[in-house]
């Protein structure tokens, strides 16, 4: 029985078990001393036939092409990753396996290299047991990719190794198996070795064949698309007799191609130690005296002598790097971007990303800068470095009484106590490696606890891996610390004097091996000391600026209804491989063949399939294009992996997209996280390898603030160009959506595809291909021309998102402009692209003050809670408005002044009260060139020159003769700009554009200098300096106005901050310009740096109020006069008005500014309004003209009053419908006001609830129609009425009547009340009818019959008596005017009216108006707002007085004015006096009739005297009618 069982077990084990038993038998014989029967061949392993076929390049290419054709479209999905079968070979020497979903967060996918070896179709079954002995606990799929399948030629083996292999299969314990497997590290003695590229550091070849065989290490289920080395590359061959091979798991490699030298040299391979699953492997090219058996030894026998490996990064030939180096061995490196590690073991490491030259092309390179040291300064107390002692020592050094060494020794002795104090603080924080030395530094900033002077301080340096000292730390011997939180990157840029993208020289560097690599760049080097990096000098290798690779990305998303999140349905990439960054590029340059490539990947939706015919159509397009431009994946995870692979292959320097910061990257990275894409895969979106994903916390909710820190960390190494942010900085548009910008800037129409429409497009092949083509950007059409037997490549450009984003970037010259700004300021290019204007100025000052040995203020980073609003300034002094766009807020230390951002704390520019009206003669606009920067230079205003007072008063002008840092810096910028402008005059073409970009960058930088002083969150905030500058600005403008008015006798009609408008009263433009020349000459001779210049000549001007005017500007070009209408602050230039209202307003404005008569203008406007309202009611106006746009300044959910704001309600509804764009902070929301059919303004539903997106009306009108009455009353009438306020012959009521509205609802307010300007409203009016227009009548009530009637004026009765005959008076007995004053009785019952009753009723009516005034009703002066309240709003915005800001601000920019003002009360009481004033009538009639009039006046005086006296007394109690002479005349 036992024998049967034994035989059964032996049978199940099979031949392999018998072979193992035979091996054990032979081993037993050998150990017993009997090995004669084994013979000489006892250690040799028999190989029946070779495993691989060796083919040349042509055969391999044909084989791959045939396989691709056979398996075209074949997709294998492995756990959601997916890969495309490209028909290429895999490298069976590598055992890497794609980790499972549980392992992916820790493991990394490996990038493999192509291999041109084909496996024979017929060969013996490999030894699975040997593979298992080698692989250990790995997955079963590893058995199919392991190198152990390869059999070797006979080689001598160790018996111990044989025993280990055999026993490993029968080991009872897994740990024992692993232990024995780890011991198997010996290699065969002979045979050619295939060394991993990660181990190669220096190789020379001899007699290298011309053809190339590339080694592909891609496993069978890898994602990577196979790359094939081009023919002509050289072969790497390893010496057969100098090998010692172990099994090495190769880390991810970004391969590169480098030509090999044909000279003979030795092969050097450095050992690499790598731990995986607890075991360590090494590999050395070295001959062992006692070679032992290796499970992979069989591989060596079948490797041909012409084996080649693609050269990876870090490989040297002839002990020289593959990239270009200078004669002195330094590496020229063009830096584009930099990144700093803030935490962990690599804290303080800096990663520079840029370009190096290899051969004739540029490749990406990462420079790892290590050993950065913190630099901080301890400010000592007075006794440490006594001034008198220091002065004596310095004098002794100058007189050579003591040596500099002795001087420094003395300084160290004086600082011994300070050093001990600091040392204790450092040691308490476990900082053991540090250095300290006394140095001389200056300080000139705002901290009150640090003296503003030059003094000796203690400089402290220690590594960044150690924690920083607290910023508020103080000790017995020091009062403050500076530089505690300065970042390593900031110190590196400032100390190495690196200003933006530029050539650097790396004097000492080492090339990183593959295992040590931290980046995905083509090359990677390490610099151990930052001092080994400096600005490169001019040479042939640094003469040109390298082109960059620009990639535009666009995502199409769908909404997951269950989780309410965006999921990616397709992704598209378009790449420009050689984009210039130093000059603008014409479309003909960057669109030429060979410059562009593109790729689109689309996936199946959940539980869906691709529609019938789509696969074939996509395949046809790929064949037509000659590459896979459309790829299909089965899952979102596979799509993301494919996208990352393609992005990695492109090796992009710059990522482009429209709102890519706020949407695309955020969605992409969150989906990567949700789909558990491996770290080694998703990190390829940047250039740093990542072991975990940073926190993707949201950045600022305020739009335009750029990407969040988490996103920027993920894409570190690649610049981010968001055309949404750039267009907001460079353009003035109503909307910054891609659709609008494509139309206005590129003259192209863009089709928008909403997220909720995308699932429906997967229903048919045609619609899905439309979606794919709308995102694939390019269609490549090959046209074969048989006549010349050539093939032309025509690129057809589709108007789609990624393409439009890239085209917009080139159109606006974003790259050269931002690069110039960065080079001037010395900050990071990535920050400039994100709109960090404050950081540009900050780094400009950091560089300048560091060069002067100044200690600079600290910067502290805090969580962001930015709340920015736009302010509208209409007061006499325009408050400071800084919009520098800083991304990081600053939290000052406890001893630094607290800075509030809510309101301006000091007065800004002077804004004169305009002389309103329509001017038809020439008006001159004179403007000071760069007023505030010029003031800084004119008066030498700087941190170093201005003495600040402790009481907070505005400081005095500096008396220092030495030029300050700010004036010197500005002078340099101005002179550079003048030089560039001189070059600009003689330049043309691209040179002209290049110089124009340079002068724009210099101008923007100079004009931003003042902003950093007044911006409360700026690192260099200095309120006293900003106050002094604006004070001088006000004085300069006022003195200029006085000069023009008093000395030159011209009328200044308006002035604003840095400009004045002068009315010449002339019709001759040449004479007007002559006057301008005289004024400019008189003003400029007062100053050294300030210059005023002629900015414009206006033929006609409509001046409405402060900062609101329109004018016809005349410009002379080529001897011809061109007229342009210039608008400033009018409703037509605001975004929250419909196109219909803007067009109507433009028409009215053109008529007003034309040279037609007043009657013709009024008639044209009235006819236009009638025509507009008729067309609107007939439905002949296009839907797009009703669209109103408004921008979301925060997420729609964050609005507390969302129900009262139409654009917020629309955005919230869009989000529910699945829209991803148009409903986030920063988006411009279009909407139309609707109403139910049959209802207009009478509807009870609010305006916000009746607002609809245009798409909602076109798809489902919900029984809604456009609210015509709303548009007539709230969109058209306010615009036209404000423009026509100064035009005679029309009024708001008349305009309302023309629009078909009720005129009674649009009674004109007094223009003085509306503008809160009552000066001269009574005195200047000479005509009684005009003077008292708008006053309410004096209503009297009969004491007997109680009938009410209007009291006529005495003057009207007297004039009737004087002109009419007695019989005519009898005939007019029914006329109230005649009856009341003739008989002094009730017009109805004819009962006599008592004089006392008249007096009492006059008094009661007057008190009623006074009571109305004291109710204190306030109303907004903006007609579209009409907000009314009795509450005081104590908010202050700009220059507004407390209590005048409209509560609807910022939606309304109006001001609260009294609904019934002092002027109204006084005017009404004066009107009562006018009605009852009998004596005044005598002067109003002709002298011939005066006798008859006097008799009648005498009669009436007795009747109205009491009432007139009562009205006069009440009126005289009003202070409005009194003038204090002390306010007009100064006391002597």
TrEMBL record:
Its main location: nucleus. The keyword Zinc-finger applies. Residues 24-89 form the DNA polymerase alpha catalytic subunit N-terminal domain. Residues 828-1287 form the DNA-directed DNA polymerase family B multifunctional domain. One of its GO terms (cellular component) is alpha DNA polymerase:primase complex. It catalyses: DNA(n) + a 2'-deoxyribonucleoside 5'-triphosphate = DNA(n+1) + diphosphate. GO terms for molecular function: chromatin binding; DNA replication origin binding; DNA-directed DNA polymerase activity; nucleotide binding; single-stranded DNA binding; zinc ion binding. It is found in: Nucleus. CDD domains: DNA_polB_alpha_exo, POLBc_alpha. The keyword Zinc applies. Keywords: DNA replication, DNA-binding, DNA-directed DNA polymerase, Metal-binding, Nucleotidyltransferase, Nucleus, Transferase, Zinc, Zinc-finger. InterPro entries: DNA-dir_DNA_pol_B (IPR006172), DNA-dir_DNA_pol_B_CS (IPR017964), DNA-dir_DNA_pol_B_exonuc (IPR006133), DNA-dir_DNA_pol_B_multi_dom (IPR006134), DNA/RNA_pol_sf (IPR043502), DNA_pol_a_cat_su_N (IPR024647), DNA_pol_B_thumb (IPR042087), DNA_pol_palm_dom_sf (IPR023211). Residues 866-881 have a biased composition (Basic and acidic residues). Residues 486-740 form the DNA-directed DNA polymerase family B exonuclease domain. Polymerase alpha in a complex with DNA primase is a replicative polymerase. Belongs to the DNA polymerase type-B family. NCBIfam families: pol2. This is DNA polymerase. The lineage of its organism: Eukaryota, Viridiplantae, Streptophyta, Embryophyta, Tracheophyta.
């Amino acid at each position: 029985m036992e024998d049967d069982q034994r035989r059964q077990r032996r049978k199940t084990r099979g031949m392999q078990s018998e072979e193992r038993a035979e091996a054990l038998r032979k081993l037993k014989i050998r150990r017993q001393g009997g090995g004669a029967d084994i013979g000489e061949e006892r250690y040799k392993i028999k190989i029946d036939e070779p495993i691989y076929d060796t083919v040349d390049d042509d055969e391999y290419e044909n084989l791959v092409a045939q396989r691709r054709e056979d398996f075209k479209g074949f997709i294998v999905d492995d756990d959601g990753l997916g890969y495309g079968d490209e028909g290429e070979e895999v490298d069976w020497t590598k055992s890497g396996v794609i980790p499972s979903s549980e392992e992916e967060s820790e493991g990394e996918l490996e990038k493999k290299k192509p291999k041109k070896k084909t496996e024979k179709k017929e060969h013996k079954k490999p030894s699975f047991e040997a593979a298992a002995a080698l692989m250990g606990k790995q997955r079963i799929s590893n058995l199919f990719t392991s190198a152990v399948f390869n059999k070797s030629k006979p080689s001598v083996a160790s018996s111990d190794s044989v025993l280990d292999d055999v026993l490993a299969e029968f080991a009872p314990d897994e740990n024992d198996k692993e232990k024995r497997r780890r011991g198997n590290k010996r290699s065969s003695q002979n045979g050619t070795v295939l060394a991993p590229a990660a181990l190669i550091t220096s190789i020379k070849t001899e007699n290298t064949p011309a053809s190339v065989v590339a080694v592909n290490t891609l496993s069978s289920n890898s994602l990577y698309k196979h790359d094939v080395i081009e023919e002509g590359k050289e072969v790497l061959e390893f010496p057969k007799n100098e090998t010692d091979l172990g099994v090495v798991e190769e880390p991810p490699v970004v391969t590169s191609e480098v030509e090999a030298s044909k000279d003979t040299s030795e092969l050097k391979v450095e050992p690499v130690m790598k731990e995986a699953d607890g075991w360590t492997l090494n590999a050395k090219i070295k001959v062992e005296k006692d070679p032992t058996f290796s499970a992979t030894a069989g591989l060596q026998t079948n490797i041909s002598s012409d084996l080649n490996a693609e050269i990876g990064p870090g490989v040297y030939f002839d002990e020289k790097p593959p990239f270009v180096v200078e004669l002195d061995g330094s590496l020229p490196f063009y830096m584009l971007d930099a990144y700093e590690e803030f935490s962990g073991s690599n804290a303080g490491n800096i990663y520079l990303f840029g370009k190096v030259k290899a051969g004739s092309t540029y490749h990406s390179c990462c420079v790892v800068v290590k050993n950065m040291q913190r630099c901080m300064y301890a400010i000592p107390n007075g006794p440490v470095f006594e001034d008198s002692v220091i002065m004596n020592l310095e004098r002794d050094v100058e007189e050579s009484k003591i040596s500099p060494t002795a001087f420094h020794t003395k300084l160290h002795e004086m600082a011994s106590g300070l050093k001990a104090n600091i040392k204790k603080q450092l040691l308490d924080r476990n900082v053991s490696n540090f250095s300290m030395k006394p140095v001389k530094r200056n300080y000139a900033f705002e901290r009150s606890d640090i003296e503003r002077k030059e003094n000796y301080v203690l400089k402290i340096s220690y590594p960044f891996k150690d924690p920083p000292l607290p910023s508020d730390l103080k000790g017995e011997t020091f009062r403050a610390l500076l530089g505690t939180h300065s970042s390593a990157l900031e110190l590196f840029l400032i100390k190495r004097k690196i200003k933006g993208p530029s050539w650097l020289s790396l004097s000492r560097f080492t090339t990183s091996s593959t295992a040590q690599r931290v980046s995905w760049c083509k090359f990677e080097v390490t610099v151990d000391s930052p001092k080994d990096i400096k600005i490169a000098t001019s040479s042939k290798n640094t003469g040109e600026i390298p082109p960059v690779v620009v990639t535009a990305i666009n995502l199409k998303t769908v909404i997951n209804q269950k989780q309410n999140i965006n999921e990616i349905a397709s992704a598209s990439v378009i790449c420009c491989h050689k984009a210039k960054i130093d000059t603008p590029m014409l479309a003909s340059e960057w669109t030429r063949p060979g410059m562009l490539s593109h790729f689109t990947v689309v996936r199946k939706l959940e539980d869906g399939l691709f529609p019938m015919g789509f696969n074939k159509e996509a395949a046809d397009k790929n064949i037509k294009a000659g590459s896979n431009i459309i790829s299909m994946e089965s899952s979102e995870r596979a799509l993301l992996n494919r996208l990352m692979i393609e992005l990695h292959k492109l090796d992009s320097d710059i990522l482009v997209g429209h709102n890519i910061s706020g949407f695309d990257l955020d969605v992409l990275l969150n989906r990567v996280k949700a789909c558990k894409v491996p770290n080694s895969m998703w990190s390829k979106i940047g250039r740093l390898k990542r072991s975990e994903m940073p926190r993707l916390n949201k950045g600022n909710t305020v739009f335009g603030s750029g990407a969040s820190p988490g996103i920027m960390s993920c894409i570190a190494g690649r610049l981010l160009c968001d055309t949404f942010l750039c267009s907001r900085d460079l353009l003035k548009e109503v909307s910054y959506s891609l659709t609008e910008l494509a139309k206005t800037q590129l003259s192209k129409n863009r089709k928008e595809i909403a997220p909720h429409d995308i699932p429906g497009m997967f229903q048919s092949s045609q619609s899905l291909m439309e979606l794919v083509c709308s995102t694939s950007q390019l269609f490549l059409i090959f046209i074969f021309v048989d006549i010349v037997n050539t093939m032309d490549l025509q690129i057809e450009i589709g108007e789609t998102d990624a393409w439009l984003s890239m085209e917009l970037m080139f159109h606006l010259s974003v790259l050269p402009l931002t690069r110039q700004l960065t080079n001037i300021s010395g900050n990071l290019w990535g920050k400039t692209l994100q709109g960090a204007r404050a950081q540009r100025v900050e780094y400009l000052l950091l560089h300048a003050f560091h060069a002067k040995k100044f200690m600079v203020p600290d910067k502290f980073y805090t969580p962001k809670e930015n709340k920015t609003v736009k302010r509208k300034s209409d007061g006499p002094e325009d408050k400071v408005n800084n919009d520098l766009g800083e991304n990081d807020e600053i939290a000052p230390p406890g001893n630094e002044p607290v800075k509030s951002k809510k309101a301006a704390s000091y007065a800004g520019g002077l804004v004169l009260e305009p002389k309103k009206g329509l001017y038809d003669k020439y008006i001159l606009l004179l403007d000071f060139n760069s007023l505030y920067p010029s003031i800084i230079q004119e008066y030498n205003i700087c941190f170093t020159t201005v003495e600040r007072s402790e009481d907070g008063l505005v400081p005095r002008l500096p008396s220092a003769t030495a030029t300050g840092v700010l004036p010197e810096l500005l002078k340099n910028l101005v002179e550079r700009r003048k030089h560039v402008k001189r070059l600009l005059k003689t330049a043309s073409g691209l040179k002209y554009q290049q110089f124009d970009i340079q002068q724009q960058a210099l101008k923007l930088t100079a004009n931003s200098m003042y902003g950093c002083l007044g911006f409360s969150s700026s690192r260099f905030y200095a309120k006293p300096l900003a106050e002094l500058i604006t004070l001088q600005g006000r004085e300069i403008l006022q003195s200029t106005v006085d000069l023009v008015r008093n000395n030159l006798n011209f009328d200044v009609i308006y002035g604003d901050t840095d400009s004045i408008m002068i009315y010449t009263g002339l019709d001759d433009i040449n004479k007007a310009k002559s006057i301008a020349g005289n004024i400019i000459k008189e003003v400029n001779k007062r100053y050294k740096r300030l210059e005023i210049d002629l900015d414009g000549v206006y033929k006609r001007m409509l001046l409405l109020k402060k900062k609101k005017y329109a004018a016809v500007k005349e410009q002379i070009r080529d001897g011809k006069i061109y007229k342009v209408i210039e608008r400033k602050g009018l409703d037509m230039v605001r975004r929250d008005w419909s196109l219909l209202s803007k067009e109507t307003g433009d028409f009215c404005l053109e008529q007003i500014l034309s040279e037609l008569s007043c009657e013709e203008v009024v008639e044209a406007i009235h006819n236009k309004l009638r025509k507009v309202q008729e067309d609107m009611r007939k439905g002949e106006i296009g839907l797009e003209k009703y669209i109103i746009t408004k921008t979301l300044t925060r997420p729609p959910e964050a609005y507390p009053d969302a129900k009262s704001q139409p654009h917020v309600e629309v955005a919230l509804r869009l989000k529910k419908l699945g829209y991803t764009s148009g409903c986030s902070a920063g988006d411009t929301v279009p909407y139309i006001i609707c109403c139910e059919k049959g209802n207009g303004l009478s509807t009870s539903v609010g305006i916000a609830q009746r607002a609809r997106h245009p798409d909602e009306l076109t798809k489902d009108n919900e029984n809604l129609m456009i609210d015509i009455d709303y548009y007539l009353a709230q969109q058209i009438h306010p615009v036209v009425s404000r423009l026509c306020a100064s035009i005679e012959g029309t009024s708001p009521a008349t305009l309302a009547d023309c629009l078909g509205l009720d005129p009674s609802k649009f009674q004109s307010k007094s223009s003085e009340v509306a503008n809160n300007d009552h000066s001269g409203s009574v005195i200047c009016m000479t005509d009684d009818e005009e003077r008292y227009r708008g006053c309410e009548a004096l209503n009297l009530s009969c004491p007997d019959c109680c009938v009410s009637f209007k009291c006529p004026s005495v003057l009207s009765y007297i004039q009737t008596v004087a002109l009419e005959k007695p019989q005519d008076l009898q005939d007019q007995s029914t006329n109230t005017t005649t009856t009341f004053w003739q008989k002094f009785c009730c017009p109805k019952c004819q009962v006599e009216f008592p004089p006392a009753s008249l007096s009492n009723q006059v008094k009661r009516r007057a008190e009623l108006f006074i009571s109305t005034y004291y109710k204190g009703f306030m109303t907004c002066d903006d007609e579209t707002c009409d907000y009314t309240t009795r509450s005081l709003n104590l908010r202050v915005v700009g220059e507004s007085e407390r209590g005048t800001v409209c509560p609807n601000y910022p939606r309304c920019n109006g001001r609260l004015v009294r609904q019934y003002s002092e002027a109204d009360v006084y005017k009404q009481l004066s009107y009562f006096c006018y009605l009852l004033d009998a004596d005044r009538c005598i002067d109003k009639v002709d002298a011939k009739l005066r006798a008859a009039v006097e008799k009648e006046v005498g009669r009436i005086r007795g009747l109205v005297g009491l009432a007139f006296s009562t009205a006069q007394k009440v009126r005289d109690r009003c202070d409005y009618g009194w003038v204090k002479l002390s306010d007009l005349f100064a006391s002597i």
